[in-house]
């Protein structure tokens, strides 16, 4: 038996699902969850890898389509993993030196898969947004 609790928002009694839907859509809650989620993902890279692997296993078609649509990314990733190219200890793109740990490789051009910078997740996202037009393949 599933217990359904109601929550009060002002004088309106609402369904639990609707309450949390509204709660999680608040801008301050969204901003806090984004910040804490990001921190958690950076602190738990093994767990994130596991979650991504689970997602790929549960969504084989989407995963296969992404791989078919992004062969250059797969090739670059394989070169890095097959050659055991280690990440640098710290992010090479951060404005502050030697502060944030490197967790990703960023390729400026997938045609040169062995050329990359070690960077933190924030810088990797920034570089992907700002340098995507520069890539040639
Ligand atoms: Zn960085």
Commentary on this structure:
The mean pLDDT is 84. This protein has 6 helices and 4 strands. It is mainly alpha-helical and 137 residues long. The termini are far apart. The protein has helices at 16-24, 27-43, 45-58, 60-69, 71-82, 121-131, and strands at 6-9, 12-15, 104-106, 117-119. Strand 1 (6-9) and strand 2 form a beta hairpin. The chain is globular and about 60 Å long. The strands form 2 sheets. The chain has a two-stranded antiparallel sheet with strand order 1-2. Strands 3-4 form a two-stranded antiparallel ribbon. The chain binds zinc ion. Residues 91, 93-94, 100, 119-120, 122-123 line the site of zinc ion. Zinc ion is lined by residues 91, 93-94, 100, 119-120, 122-123.
Topology:
Layout: E1 6-9, E2 12-15, H1 16-24, H2 27-43, H3 45-58, H4 60-69, H5 71-82, E3 104-106, E4 117-119, H6 121-131
The structure holds zinc ion.
Helix amount, in percent? 40-55%
**Average pLDDT value?**
84
Largest sheet properties: 2 strands, antiparallel
Bound molecules: zinc ion
What is the 3D shape?
globular
Q: Given the structure, what is the number of helices?
A: 6
End-to-end separation: 55 Å
**Which regions contain 5 or more consecutive residues with pLDDT less than 50?**
none
Strand order of the largest sheet: 1-2
How much of the sequence lies in strands comes to 5-15%
Number of strands: 4
State the assembly state of the protein chains. Answer: single chain
Q: Decide which structural class fits the backbone.
A: mainly alpha
Order of helices and strands: EEHHHHHEEH
Task: Supply Rg.
Answer: 20 Å
